Each structure stands twice: as C-alpha cells, then as structure tokens.
C-alpha cells in the first residue's frame, strides 16, 4: 500500500508541475485546486500514519483496529436456528454506541423489513451467503405517509435500509425497494439503500429499485462487484465513492440519467468514480446530470452499451453549470462510449487527469479499507 501511495503522490506532483502557470480557464483552475487538495490530504494522512506503529505495521485508524480485534458474530436465520429471526431484532440487541465489529451472519430468505442502522452504531457488517444471498425488501416512496407526523416521508426516509453509522460493511446482500414507478408522476422516489455514514464498503451486493435506487448520500464509500438497477437518477447524492467492477442496469422507458451527483460547491471533495464497470439496459440514458452545480462523475475502463446517449451528459437545463461540472471519461468501450457526439464540456481525460480517480486512494482507502477476505472472515 505504501508504495502505491508514494507513487500517487509522485504523479500528483508531476501533474501539478505540468499544470503550473497555465491557469487560463476556470476548468484548469478547478483541476489544480483538486490536485493541490489531494497533495495536502496525502501529507496529512502521512502524518497520521507515522503516529502509531503496532508490530511494525503502521496503524492509521486506532478505533477501527480495536473494533476489528474484538469482532463478534450474531446469526440471523428465518428457520429459527440462529440467534434472531429478523435483522431488526439483531440490531436491537447491539449497544447503541457500538465499538466492536459485529458481524450479522444473515441466512437466506426474503426479509421484509425496513431497517435503520443508527448514527452511533458503527462497525456493523451484514454478511450473506454468496450462493443464496438474503434479500432485504420494503416499498416506501417519497410520498408514503410517515406514521409519526402524518406527512409524506420524502426521498430520504423512503429507504428500505438506511445506514447512518460509519464503518458499515455488506457482503452478498440484495437491497430492494419494490415500489413501482410510473413516468410523469411525482413523489415516487423509492430508495433501496441510503448510505450516510462514512468509510462504508459493499462487496457483491445488489440494489434493486426504480427511481432513486441508491442514495450515495455522503461520506467515503467503496462498491465492488455490485449490481445496481433503476430507472431515473438511480445513483445519487454527494458521497465520494469508488465503484469498481459494478454493473449498472437501466430500466428507463424513455430518457433518464444514471447518476445525479450533488457536489454543489467547488470546495466539496465529493464525486462518483466508476471503474471497470458496465452499463446496460433499456431506454436512453445520460451518464450523469448535474444535481449539484459542481457535480463530479468519472467513468473509466467501462463498457457502455448503446443506451448511452451520444451527448453523454446533461447540465439539467442550467448552462452556467457547463464550466463547473466535472464529467470525465477515460478508456471506455462499447457503442455508448463513442465520444464524437459528446457535449463540448465533457472531459476526455488524459492518463494523468484520470489517475486521481481510478484507485482506492480516491476514497482514502489506505486509511480504512481492509481487503474483502480479511473483512469477511473472523
Ligand atoms: C437454517 O438456516 C441456516 C442458514 O441461516 C442453515 O445453515 C441451516 O442449515 C438451516 N437449518 C435447517 C434445519 O434448515
Ligand atoms: C453458503 O451456502 C452453501 C450452500 O448452502 C454452503 O455449502 C456454504 O458453506 C455456505 N457458506 C458460508 C460461508 O456459510
Ligand atoms: C407496499 O406493499 C404493501 C403490501 O403489499 C401495500 O399494502 C402498500 O400499499 C404498498 N405501499 C406502496 C407505497 O406501494
Ligand atoms: C462514432 O459516431 C460517429 C457519428 O455517429 C460515427 O461516424 C463513427 O463511425 C462512430 N465511431 C465508432 C468507432 O463507432
């Protein structure tokens, strides 16, 4: 890991030299700011890493290290052989201010439950079996009535599973919101998963919904080998997230957008990066539309089927955003990746420009991301 970091910093350094003195356009200025932020961030992390060493290994996050060393397992099974029969009951048994890794070993089956992992309940893992992954399903929408105050619950509360805690992990889990979507009707945002905590990772999970399937709300997130399906804006929010080896499948009937990234301020270090992924499905889709004025999305090494519109990106009718958004593509393939019809403000990235987005360093992974095997085994 250390050598990767060193390599990255060298690249950042070189890139910043190349760009020095050429701040003619707002775009370039933006890019330089991003690079210099990355350099500062790297230096800060190096300082933290130098502060503690355990058995010759630099410990970056003491809280995380302690949580993993005190790991416990709880089983959830619908046939009554586990500690609990529902995920809600299992979560209710965990201390609200949790400090150790608690792995919920979830047996196969369809769990019709609406779940919230509260803000202080860090270090929870949902572990399903790859050969028969459990499904967590519900069907609230933004216009569903909230039982507490009798008002519509809005997009935020429509989530089947909402994670407000940090250090959340999930393996082989199917997250689903089954509310149907009709074109042109309002209030049908129906989230399958909302992730609002930071330092969360999802491995081999699937997300099924229609409008607004995956609310990548905020924080640092990693998605690996995941399947994400929806119709409109089905990955949205202002998380800083890396999606690797993921499959985005559109259910759109007409024209829609895959992502609606909400970076709405030039100083926000937020953005979605998709690497080694693929885009398939129905309708005609933009890769992204600017929910935030400084929306940032990058696709690299990704297969794009013909559903991707030649224009590629949408400013959501706000031309002043064209200079502000950061919509990049690098080394993509397939009929949808033809760049000849792209909007003029789409960025065809050079290797140097793509570099900051295409590794787990994009999400500060070296400070919190453990290898999937280590994370799954106790
Ligand atoms: C009950 O389900 C678990 C998985 O949750 C499985 O390992 C176990 O074999 C099942 N037992 C019976 C009796 O079906
Ligand atoms: C997953 O399920 C299969 C089939 O029931 C079983 O053979 C295997 O041991 C399970 N894996 C784990 C990690 O529990
Ligand atoms: C959710 O499903 C339940 C049970 O099938 C149904 O009664 C309810 O109307 C559905 N709610 C929405 C908002 O679709
Ligand atoms: C890309 O699209 C243009 C315009 O439609 C077309 O002329 C060109 O052949 C396409 N290139 C590839 C590699 O398909």
TrEMBL record:
Reactions listed under catalytic activity: [(1->4)-alpha-D-galacturonosyl methyl ester](n) + n H2O = [(1->4)-alpha-D-galacturonosyl](n) + n methanol + n H(+)
Catalytic residue positions: 233
Principal EC category: hydrolase
Signal peptide positions (record): 1-25
Transmembrane segments: none
GO molecular function, one term: pectinesterase activity
Record-listed E.C. numbers: 3.1.1.11
Gene3D superfamilies hit by this protein: Single-stranded right-handed beta-helix, Pectin lyase-like (2.160.20.10)
Pfam family of the protein (one): Pectinesterase
Domain Pectinesterase catalytic: from-to ranges: 74-366
Subcellular location field: Secreted, Cell wall
A Gene Ontology BP annotation from the UniProt entry: cell wall modification
The entry's keywords: Aspartyl esterase, Cell wall, Hydrolase, Secreted, Signal
Pathway stated in the Swiss-Prot or TrEMBL entry: Glycan metabolism; pectin degradation; 2-dehydro-3-deoxy-D-gluconate from pectin: step 1/5
Family from the record: Belongs to the pectinesterase family.
Protein known as: Pectinesterase
Source organism: Heracleum sosnowskyi
């Amino acid at each position: 890991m250390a050598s990767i970091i060193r390599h990255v910093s060298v690249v950042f350094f070189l890139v910043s030299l190349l760009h020095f003195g050429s701040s003619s356009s707002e775009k370039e200025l933006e890019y330089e700011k991003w690079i210099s932020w990355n350099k500062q961030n790297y230096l800060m992390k190096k300082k933290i890493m130098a502060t503690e060493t355990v058995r010759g290994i630099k410990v970056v996050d003491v809280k995380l290290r302690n949580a993993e060393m005190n790991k416990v397992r709880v089983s959830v099974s619908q046939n009554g052989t586990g500690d609990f029969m529902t995920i809600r009951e299992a979560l209710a048994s965990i201390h609200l201010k949790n400090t150790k890794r608690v792995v919920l070993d979830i047996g196969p089956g369809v769990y019709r439950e609406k779940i919230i992992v509260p803000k202080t309940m860090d270090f929870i893992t949902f572990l399903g079996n790859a050969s028969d992954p459990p499904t967590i399903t519900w069907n609230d929408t933004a216009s569903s009535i909230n039982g507490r105050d009798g008002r519509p619950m809005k997009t935020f509360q429509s989530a089947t599973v909402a994670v407000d805690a940090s250090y959340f992990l999930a393996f082989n889990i199917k997250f689903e919101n089954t509310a149907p979507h009709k074109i042109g009707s309002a209030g049908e945002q129906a989230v399958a998963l909302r992730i609002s905590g930071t330092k969360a990772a999802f491995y081999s999970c699937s997300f099924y919904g229609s409008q607004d399937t995956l609310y990548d709300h905020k924080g640092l997130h990693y998605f690996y080998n995941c399947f994400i399906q929806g119709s409109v804006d089905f990955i949205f929010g202002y998380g800083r997230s890396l999606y690797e080896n993921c499959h985005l499948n559109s259910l759109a009937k007409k024209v829609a957008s895959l992502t609606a990234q909400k970076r709405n301020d030039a100083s926000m270090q937020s953005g979605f990066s998709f690497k080694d992924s693929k885009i398939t499905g129905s309708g005609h889709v933009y890769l992204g539309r600017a929910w935030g004025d400084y929306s940032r999305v990058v696709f690299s090494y990704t297969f794009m089927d013909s559903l991707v519109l030649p224009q590629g990106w949408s400013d959501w009718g706000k031309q002043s955003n064209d200079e502000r958004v950061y919509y990049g593509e690098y080394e993509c393939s397939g009929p949808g990746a033809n760049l000849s019809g792209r909007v003029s403000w789409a960025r065809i990235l050079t290797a140097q420009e793509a570099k900051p987005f295409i590794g787990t360093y994009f999400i500060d992974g070296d400070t919190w991301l453990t290898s999937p095997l280590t994370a799954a085994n106790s």
